[in-house]
Amino acid sequence: NKSFLQCKLMKKILSTIFILTFFLQGNFWALAAGEVFQVDTGGTLNTGLLAYYKLEDVNDFFSTHTLTNFGTTQFNIGKVSNAADFGASNSTKYLRSTDDLGINGGSISMACWINITTQPGTNVDSALVAQGNATNNVSNFLRYQDSGGTKILSFARNRVGVTIQQAQISTTLTTGTWYDIVGTFDSASSTLYLYLNGTLQSTSTASGFGSGSGITEIEISGYYNTAGGLYSGLADECGIWSKALSQQEVTDLYNSGNGQTMYIPGAAAPTRRRMIIISKLLENHNLVAVLRERII
Asked: Which helix (H) or strand (E) holds 117?
């Protein structure tokens, strides 16, 4: 009868609401709160952040600047969970997007954990992270290179067609060891800064734009969208900001050598499986609502 059907229908509605609550609890409010860093002393690491790649895949965890996987880069055990693994002898693998993140020669910071698998050969460049634009024709990149047998780590600012400005140190990174590398450019003070494992290593004066043909890109392992400058090793937890990171922010990223990552507080983001289940439940709820109209 009508009362029996109404009662049965109401049980289904309440059951659906209960299950939806179970799956979504925390996630809605966590997503509303946004992504945060595990360690952020001043609560400022999100300020100016444009893209953050956990490198468990090609996705931008913070925003929507997804990378394209060239050469079938694998994602294996890294510093924090998985990392992009470009192999021991890389000649084809890099991650790239035709996107300059809106940085056109102004302030920028790049941070990334890297683990060298194979040292660059004599006079060979290994670009770790790169960003470029075709408006003011300036490219920025972290790189590890060999210059006549001397290994050099640098944060470079290439004024295309004019000159390369860089903060650099001569150092041989140990293979199989994780290093936290940060490069920043402060346009207000016209200064480049290079940090290694949370400690400032080098500064250099830099200013001006390029006059050649710049390339719009974000790239991990390589630059200028060529087979040159590819990196043989692993990369993990890479971020790009439109500001010069402070010493405290660099210290927080290093986190006493433990590394850190971004996460959504309260709960993990909904997985594909969870979203499918939720979709089915909502679909079921709509059918119930239609039945309810017909009965009442």
From this structure: none
| Cβ atoms 55, 83 nearer than 8 A | yes
Give the predicted TM-score (pTM) of the model. Answer: 0.80
Angstrom CA distances, 123 to 146, 184, 223, stand at 5, 25, 16
Confidence check: pLDDT of 173 > 70:
yes
Which amino acid is residue 164, in one-letter code? I
Give the whole-angstrom CA distance, residue 66 versus residue 82. 17
Number of H helices, E strands in the chain: 4, 17
E strand or H helix at 97, and its extent? strand 94-97
Using a 10 angstrom Cβ sphere, with 0-12 exposed, 13-18 middle and 19 or more buried, the burial of residue 118 is middle
pLDDT score, position 273: 40
DSSP letters, 156-189, are EEEETTTEEEEEEEE--PPTT-EEEEEEEEETTT
232: Cβ contacts below 8 Å, ≥ 6 apart? 86, 87, 88, 89, 90, 116, 117, 118, 120, 126
Q: In this model, does residue 228 exceed pLDDT 60?
A: yes
DSSP element (H, E) containing 134: none
pLDDT above 70 covers a percentage of the chain that reads 77
